[in-house]
Amino acid sequence: MQRILKESQRFPGLTRRENKAGSLIRWPCSSSALVGFASLYALQRLQEYLPLNPQGFSGVPSDLAFNTSVSFVTNTNWQNYAGESTMSHLTQMLGLTVHNFLSAATGLAMAFALVRGFSRAESPTVGNFWVDLTRSTLYVLLPLSIVVALVLVAMGVPQTLAGSVEATTLEGAKQVISIGPMASQEAIKQLGTNGGGFFNANSAHPFESPNAWSNMLEIWALLVIPFAAAFALGRAVLDFKQGRAIAITMDIVLVAGVGVAYWAESAGNPMLTSIGVDPSPGNMEGKEVRFGVATSALFAASTTGTSCGAVNSMHDSFMALGGLVPIFNMLMGSVAPGGVGAGLYGFLVLAVIAVFVAGLMVGRTPEYLGKKIEAREMKLAMLAVLIYPLTVLGFSAASVMLQTGLNSLNNAGPHGLSEILYAFASANDNNGSAFAGLTGNTLWYNTTLGIAMLLGRFAFVVPVLAMAGSFAAKKKSAASSGTFPTDGPLFIGLLIGVIVILYLLQYFPALALGPIVEHFLTEAGKTF
């Protein structure tokens, strides 16, 4: 992280474009994403003619290839396919795994552009995208991935170019099990908060996570860089307490989600209890016995508190309030602690809004990290946070009104609405997990979810980078007795309040019609 913070002055002509206000917005991330999309799309469509395809898989259909290409380029890793029966080893390694690195590194580069906006004063630049991309990959993601991959191999995760192995079941039948380069993809899947698994069952599959130790390692891997980015913010602005305050806020929101999910899942299903099923193990539907309720709840809150999207249990089988936690985490933008880079810049946008609210309360010009927050920055911040509800609620509304959207549902009533809401929240938030009751591999969902992914990544980051340029061009004000402190408990409480109130007000009607109604119906013993 420390090396990413270094100034980047080489090749300035490649890194910026001036807008009318003089702010600097860096566009190479969009051009690199376009090239990445085209190459990954071609790789999927042509994989039957390319090497390293031991299973002989045919080319991926056009709409699914579009959805998957957008998914991995945007760090979403939404999968409308079963990886073990769709993608060749070449597509997995050269296509998906490469973009696991590049999309995560792009997130870090964009985050530290905003960080430099606060750390620099009267600066015409916010860094060099290509240098940030290279450093993020070579100094952070690649070394950690090599270590984690080797540890996973030692724990029993396969890493091979073979296509499959044959096993004999307890009944004496023969079973063909897919294998491949799993450990290498699993490592960057978690460290880059990507989430796309080699298997359709993701980290619930014993080849992706064989035991409780590998499960805890994967949880650590998906959390370590997002939390480290918060502390890197403190180093960049030369005030460790600022980064600590952000990290503590992230942690409080994450722990609260874990607590609610565990409470809901450990109580068991009241409908099963009413017919005599022992509730003491909790709600074990959709969960692996080797993980249990506790670490399944921890994983679910962590993977949606980040924009990872990996799963070790089926969120669709959670109790209504247990399923509400991952949905609400994603509706908040997965900012606790958020994706690699994406969590930090998403959280800083909320911090700007919180400081502005505090300034209105006391009648002072709001400042954050020495930079005055004026009308321009607030317009950009509100534009960023309004993109999510417009996309999620708009596409969800269209899906429940059109028969083509309803045809993909396996559940009616409130739970069906929850499945659709979850899908678009996951896509727009670049998370990638799913309520599995929704069949997403259709022309409607492949297309609309792909558009939601693009808006969630690039439409959100444009105002964020505009804020970075605006802040970098400002002078840095010295703290005074009238400066609102942003490193203590008062600011942490205000920030949590802004997060909860802002997103609860935006999504409460949809949540009330979905998981909340579902909870009361379940408690009453009614099915839907």
3D architecture notes:
It is built from 16 helices and six strands. It is mainly α. The protein has a two-stranded antiparallel sheet with strand order 1-2. The protein has a two-stranded antiparallel sheet with strand order 3-4. A hairpin with a 5-residue loop joins strand 3 and strand 4. The longest helix is centred in the C-terminal third of the chain and has 35 residues. About 4% of the residues have low confidence.
Major β-sheet annotation: 2 strands, antiparallel
User: Which strands sit side by side, in order, in the main sheet?
Assistant: 1-2
Order of helices and strands: EEHHHHEEHHHHHHHEEHHHHH
What coarse outline follows from CA principal-axis ratios?
globular
Short description:
59% of the residues lie in helices and 3% in strands. The chain has helices spanning 28-45, 62-73, 89-119, 129-155, 182-191, 212-236, 240-266, 270-273, 292-305, 320-331, 342-362, 375-401, 403-406, 413-428, 443-472, 489-523; strands spanning 17-18, 24-25, 164-168, 174-178, 367-368, 371-372.
